[in-house]
Design a protein that fits this description.
Layout lengths: L2 E2 L2 E2 L6 E4 L3 H12 L4 E4 L11
């Protein structure tokens, strides 16, 4: 838990990327490179998987 003075701190991000396949990874990299606070949400492995 992220705590400030015994209370949970608000979690704020400039960019949230959900399901980070190759495109999502690139979006997150570019957002972070631009100095934005970036969060990634992925249920499986980062980068997705090959569909063929």
């Amino acid at each position: 838990m992220n705590e400030v003075l015994g209370k949970e701190a608000p979690r704020t991000h400039d960019v949230s990327v959900i399901e980070t396949g190759p495109v999502g990874q690139r979006v997150a990299e570019r957002a972070r490179g631009a100095g934005l606070n970036t969060a990634i949400g992925e249920r499986e492995l980062l980068g997705g998987d090959c569909s063929f």
